[in-house]
Amino acid sequence: MILKAFIIGICASMPLGPVAILVLQKSLGYGRKVGFVTGLGATTVDTTYSILAIFALAVAEGFIETYEYPLFLIGGIIIAAMGFSMAFRDPFRKLKPERTDRKGSATDYIQAVGLALSNPGAILVMFALFAFFGLEVDCKDFRMFPVVLAVAGGSVTYWFCFSYLFGRIGKAIDLRSVMWLSRVAGIVVMIIGIALFGQGAFQLIFR
User: Fold this and answer.
1) CA nearest neighbour of 5 among 126, 123, 160, 112
2) Closest C-alpha among 122, 112, 116, 117 to residue 37
């Protein structure tokens, strides 16, 4: 059961969505420490969703199904705005010409938490993973605590490896290349946000 929960934590973090792109940008631009702290924000949300999957699966699913399209609208606006900022703001304007590693800050962490929470589909992914791996833990069962910790451990492990890999690669990339990668990443995030907003708007208007 613990191994399954650990794998769920890894699988929940793996999709190349806005959070992964944000962690990639931070790792390339500021180093693996900042990337890892940013990834911890996603871990916090994934862990919260795992607790929801255990405590209130039916209630949470009903809420998401009821307010799915308004959540798409709100989430799409937030994601598109963040993508715009990533694409058209110079994230390295305060840095020296060569890349300088820095420690992760609360801002990096909170930014990832906000971005992860703005994606309502992420909780459905967590529910699906629990169902796929057959993890049914009663909220009154003491085993739920190791399961939640294992999910968090899997997510932390994934983001540590992800940020370490791209943080190391970032040292071999010049600032101009990182700038373009940042802008491309921002445009991708904008497209995801616009698509999410468009889907919500279309369903609300034509359903």
Assistant:
1) 126
2) 112
Whether the CB-CB separation of 35 and 166 falls below 8 Å is answered with: yes
Alpha helices (runs of H) in the chain, residue ranges in sequence order: 2-13, 18-30, 32-55, 57-66, 68-88, 106-117, 121-132, 144-170, 175-206
Place of tokens 């992860």: 116
Q: Which amino acid is at 19?
A: V
Region class of 141: left (phi > 0), else alpha (psi between -120 and 50), else beta: beta
Question: Which residue carries 């059961």 as its tokens?
Answer: 1
Confidence of residue 122 (pLDDT cuts 50, 70, 90): confident
Cα distance between residue 132 and residue 125, in whole Å: 10
Burial class (CB in 10 A: 0-12, 13-18, 19+), 201: middle
92 vs 34, residue with greater confidence = 34
Kindly tell me the burial class for residue 97, based on how many C-beta atoms sit within 10 Å of its own C-beta (0-12, 13-18, 19 or more): exposed
Residue 153 has pLDDT above 50, yes or no: yes
Question: How far apart are the C-alpha atoms of 159 and 43, rounded to whole Å?
Answer: 8
Inter-axis angle of helices 32-55 and 106-117, to 10 degrees? 40
Q: How sure is the predictor about 141, in pLDDT bands with cuts at 50, 70 and 90?
A: low
